[in-house]
Design brief:
elongated, 84 residues, single chain
Length: 84
Amino acid sequence: DGSQNAEASATHAFDRGFKRLQRNNAARMQQSWRNASDDAANYDYVREEIASRLIDRLDDIKRDEGFPLALDVGSGPGYVYKAI
């Protein structure tokens, strides 16, 4: 009986209908992100302002060696890099 339960659960490990729903949902989400990226340009000024303020705050930190290396993660098309 135990082997029959394991076999039955193994055959239902990947529900084709559910996987189809996941794939369709992923395709819809990708399309909505593409549409949202068109609208994102309307808010670039906010990202530029945030980057500028972040750099101002970093400039206030006193370090003898400064910041010789930085990683710009998550600021879109390099707003922090441009602000530096």
